[in-house]
Amino acid sequence: MNLIKRFIFLFILLLSQTGISQDFFDLSVTAGSGTISSNSPYITGFTSSLSAGMGKAYNVITPRVSFYYSGDFNMIIPEAGRKYYPFIKAFAVKGIYAVNVTGDIYYEQGLGLYIANDRIYSNVNEWGAGFIVSILGGADFRGSSYSGFRVGVGGEYGLTVYNRYVKYFGLFIQAQYIFSYNF
Question: How, if at all, do strands 20-38 and 126-140 pair?
């Protein structure tokens, strides 16, 4: 838990030291399929995340904070009959670089810090820190408005290199709403 506090402190410190424009914030939800592993064979399962971003640092990079939950597919199947289902939960702070290819098509790529809670085995409950990378392409439905929806398809890879070697890979669909202060 001490690692999470340090992670949040570092994020707040970085936000206060950069030239963040405060003209918008965004909320994102993802759902998809992927794999998880931690000193174990890969387990195929579902992935989900909630994210929030704000402004742009130096008009280029959008900072985004995310919460991830990924688990065994059997968890969502009724009457699977098992007592324990492997899962991981994680937090990430990423810098997102987004580019509008045309008026309606965009792509984004991200890189950041990642901490994950290893719950692959029922007797393990440990946190590890590492990095996460992502890429996404999609459609922007905002038109000429600053606020509105964007939808995309993407992939992510997270790996912890401190304490535990938790690996996460996900392919997902993302729905994002951007709230703009520009009128």
Answer: unpaired
